[in-house]
Amino acid sequence: MDAREIRSPEVLPEVSPVSLEANAESHKRKRLGIYFLESDDRRTALGGGYTSGATPVNIHGKPISEFTISKTGGWIAAFFIFGNEMAERMAYFGLSVNMVAFMFYVMHQPFENSANAVNNFLGISQASSVLGGFLADAYLGRYWTIAIFTTIYLGTNVIRLPFFWAIVSRQKPWQMLYLYTVLYITGFGAAGIRPCVSSFGADQFDERSSGYKEHLDRFFNFFYLSVTVGAIVAFTAVVYIQMKHGWGSAFGSLAIAMGMSNLVFFLGTPLYRHRLPGGSLLTRVAQVLVAAFRKRNASFENSEFVGLYELPGQRSAIKGSSKIPHTEDFRCLDKAALRLKEDGVNPSPWRLCTVTQVEEIKILLKLVPIPACTIMLNLILTEYLTLSVQQAYTLNTHMGHLKLPVTCMPVFPGLSIFLLLSLYYSVFVPLSRRITGHPHGASQLQRVGIGLAVSILSVAWAGMFERYRRHYAIEHGYEASFLTPMPDLSAYWLLIQYCLIGIAEVFCIVGLLEFLYEEAPDAMRSIGSAYAAVAGGLGCFAATILNNIIKSVTGDVEKRKPSWLSQNVNTGRFDYFYWLLTVMSVINFSAFLFAAQRYQYRQSR
């Protein structure tokens, strides 16, 4: 037997069972990491093990040699990914911002139904991102997952075009069904791209290089900058095309943008570095749970305890992953790696798992609270897409002689994001470095916390301004005229809440993406990135649920009592709703502080 054992506790001279027993009262949670059995004796579908997850491979899955690695990856490859993401986000946000107006004005759907349909589209496209992350990590790899789903995305953009050109002249009953079907298939295409693109871009940088951390930090900032530029174009140029040339041309421009996205992505193919998919993570998760359940009654201290199982040397049992050291969290799962004498020479992977396999599951569990705390921010972002637009209809949107369309108002968070990211390294990092001493100005979790704190200020201001706006409308006789702009009250007061939420988004989402990429297991980084997208999707669904609850609780049709979220914003109480969001955000921020304080970065262990 080619094996290396760290013997069981009862024969280890430095940690004898007597000393363990004596210290049981004072140190009940004994460290198990010193009790290892490293062996090649078990046959698994994964073979004898794999080298470090940091090893880059080419598109054929072969390791890239040291002589050719300098010709691949790096910032040049990343710029192709930036271009791809910029064009894809233009198509995505262009569809989102125009679809509410299209369904309201052209399809004659109530504003509430139109907003909920788009919220559901946004929610599905983000929450189902876990599917794309699973396929990328388990089977296809990030490149091929993006390639397949971006092609689906392009196809749905093309097949929508005849509908948008025909609908304006003649409507038929089946058209709403067709619209919903194509809309949700488009969301499915976006779901496969979202969790993979940022991770695939980060894969282009060498983990073994001295400047890796700095490159990764800058990459995620520039990545989100490309997302923002795509959104700004969608909120301005696409809206302009719709106003000047009609709906068909507007949605046609989105198909062109998606075609450009595909073209740019595929042009960069020779330059990309890849990571091997790690095999079915669902199987690995199931194996850990089954093995731990089978040994639930076994003790770490009895005579049958041989050690915690792991492959020898630098090899990992999981393709595309490096070894993960043992940790003391979720000790119940450690029993999956607990090797007993009864396991025999050649145990099944459903009875005995490696420490790395167990630690993967632990990491995924420990990551959950952080993205979960960003659901509230995504809920606010979703509400702003509709509520702020309703407010803007009652305000003067003129800027000098230029009248800004109401549907362009969401561009201002994008502009604030663009400005902040442009000044991030020249202003924020040097100033915050003096306060925190952190080389990047703030840690990833600190940035997420800053974003959540700023989002509280945004909704608090929104509540104060809405209270003033509503009082002004009633006082000046506009109570029933909720689609008539008040000439003496500027819509640019909304810029304060827009800019604050843009700042919150930069700190929170960029910090979260970087956090999830670095902390996720090597073979599960797409799933890690999908956590952020799932939080976004849950935020969209939560917004729809919250809206329905508020309308049912605060409104009474029989008594003709309007709800807080009445379509007539002058008779509704948007201010109360914003204050409710403020209270919810404070509670959420407190939960984040608790979770962040308890979290330990993997690198610090």
TrEMBL record:
<feature type="transmembrane region" description="Helical">
    <location>
        <begin position="491"/>
        <end position="517"/>
    </location>
</feature>
<feature type="transmembrane region" description="Helical">
    <location>
        <begin position="448"/>
        <end position="465"/>
    </location>
</feature>
<feature type="transmembrane region" description="Helical">
    <location>
        <begin position="576"/>
        <end position="596"/>
    </location>
</feature>
<feature type="transmembrane region" description="Helical">
    <location>
        <begin position="247"/>
        <end position="267"/>
    </location>
</feature>
<feature type="transmembrane region" description="Helical">
    <location>
        <begin position="177"/>
        <end position="197"/>
    </location>
</feature>
<protein>
    <submittedName>
        <fullName>Protein NRT1/ PTR FAMILY 6.1</fullName>
    </submittedName>
</protein>
<keyword id="KW-0812">Transmembrane</keyword>
<dbReference type="GO" id="GO:0022857">
    <property type="term" value="F:transmembrane transporter activity"/>
</dbReference>
<feature type="transmembrane region" description="Helical">
    <location>
        <begin position="90"/>
        <end position="111"/>
    </location>
</feature>
<feature type="transmembrane region" description="Helical">
    <location>
        <begin position="363"/>
        <end position="384"/>
    </location>
</feature>
<keyword id="KW-0472">Membrane</keyword>
<dbReference type="Pfam" id="PF00854">
    <property type="entry name" value="PTR2"/>
</dbReference>
<feature type="transmembrane region" description="Helical">
    <location>
        <begin position="218"/>
        <end position="241"/>
    </location>
</feature>
<feature type="transmembrane region" description="Helical">
    <location>
        <begin position="404"/>
        <end position="427"/>
    </location>
</feature>
<feature type="transmembrane region" description="Helical">
    <location>
        <begin position="117"/>
        <end position="136"/>
    </location>
</feature>
<dbReference type="InterPro" id="IPR000109">
    <property type="entry name" value="POT_fam"/>
</dbReference>
<comment type="similarity">
    <text>Belongs to the major facilitator superfamily. Phosphate:H(+) symporter (TC 2.A.1.9) family.</text>
</comment>
<dbReference type="InterPro" id="IPR036259">
    <property type="entry name" value="MFS_trans_sf"/>
</dbReference>
<comment type="similarity">
    <text>Belongs to the major facilitator superfamily. Proton-dependent oligopeptide transporter (POT/PTR) (TC 2.A.17) family.</text>
</comment>
<feature type="transmembrane region" description="Helical">
    <location>
        <begin position="143"/>
        <end position="165"/>
    </location>
</feature>
<keyword id="KW-1133">Transmembrane helix</keyword>
<feature type="transmembrane region" description="Helical">
    <location>
        <begin position="529"/>
        <end position="550"/>
    </location>
</feature>
<dbReference type="GO" id="GO:0016020">
    <property type="term" value="C:membrane"/>
</dbReference>
